[in-house]
What we know:
Elements: E1 9-11, H1 16-44, E2 60-65, H2 69-85, E3 90-95, H3 100-103, E4 111-114, H4 127-148, E5 152-155, H5 164-169, E6 174-178, E7 189-191, E8 193-195, H6 200-209, H7 230-240, E9 247-251, H8 263-275, E10 279-283, H9 286-296, E11 303-305, H10 312-321, E12 324-327, H11 331-338, E13 343-347, H12 353-356, E14 363-367, H13 385-388, H14 392-403
Parallel strand pairs: 1-8, 2-3, 2-5, 3-4, 5-6, 6-7, 9-10, 9-12, 10-11, 12-13, 13-14
Helix pairs in contact: 2-6, 2-11, 7-10, 8-9
Amino acid sequence: xxxYKPNRIEIQRGEDRVARRYRVKYGFxxxxxxxxxxxxxxxxxxxxxxxxxxxxxxxxxxxxNGGHFGDLVMSTAVIQLVRLAFPGAEVGLLAGSWSRSVFxxxxxxxxxxxxxxxxxSRAKLPRWRKALHYAFERGRVIEELREQHYDVALDxxxxxxxxxxxxxxxxxxxxxxxxxVGFGPMLTHAGHVTYGGRHELEDQLDLIRLICDNPPQSDAxxxxxxxxxxxxxxxxxxxxGQDPPPFIVLHMGSSVPAKDWPEPKWRELAERLAGLGYRxxxxxxxxxxxxxxEIATQGLTNYVNACDRATWAxxxxxxxxxxxVYSTDSSVGHVAAAVNTPVVTVYGGTVEPDRFKPYGTLCExxxxxPPCFPCLRKRGCSxxxxxxxxxxxxxxxxxxxxxxxxxxxxxxxxxxGKRR
Length: 420
């Protein structure tokens, strides 16, 4: 009889302090899911790959990611590596409806399957209505996946929720993913998760090694976004003019207030940039971000408030044309990395920066690390010293260092002239 052995959490050497924080934060959750999987295995057994499984015969592969925009942008690197590992195979993507903005008409993906999980959906609906919608749509998507006859499915999400039950119900023969947040017995191949000191994308790319005899090197793939459509270019030109002066994007917003850097500090940063002759462009979405931008820009000159004035494609084009981006922990930082625009990302201690920072060569992280850093608490704490005591000088120095590197230009010398 097959017995289910839950996956262990690996600890990166030299990161014991951070690993302990993860254990405190997720210890009970991890233990609960391990017991859940043990009980589940008693009923369904443990999945194994087909006896005639041959990586060379793969014709259709499905990538599943229930995350949001930043996660989806990072998934472009996974898709690139999958295409290198399995040349000629068709690639499908299972993700939330918001993925349409990133992947519709994208040649990296042959088919797009949309399913909004009740937990990750940001629709302005009660949770019970989201759950009801998910329950109705679930059957449709499972049938849709069965019709495509996928040979392999990779669920790249390490956090709750994953789409593993959907892949199992769709009868995809080979299912690869992480068993950290449940449904591990439904996987034919389970990857390890590293707590502390490793980027999440590197864990995801390791999944491909579980099913490929000669996998490409991970550095062969980087997040990348396609050139913007004509409509996005026209959107930016309407906002800034056909030949705008050099500008720098400041993105103050994030998914939760605990990730926000104080508005006065953004204002001081904007004043310094304007003093060098840059136009400062503030981006954001929603009432809270609009309000914060208005606070930060009172009396400020030479700036543009683009909050709620750009579509996703327009935002990507704005970031692509910018000299540089300063951002909180949000999807905008990942977009900048994907279009090769230098980016400084401001991080507090609600997440581990090394795991979630933008992935690329033109990326810098600005942090202030009190003894409690990182706390990994979603809502942070009352004083939030990791952000309130993060100085403008620290963020400014990170930008100076980045644009003074061999890949950038010297902001300290006041040079302006974005590559086109």
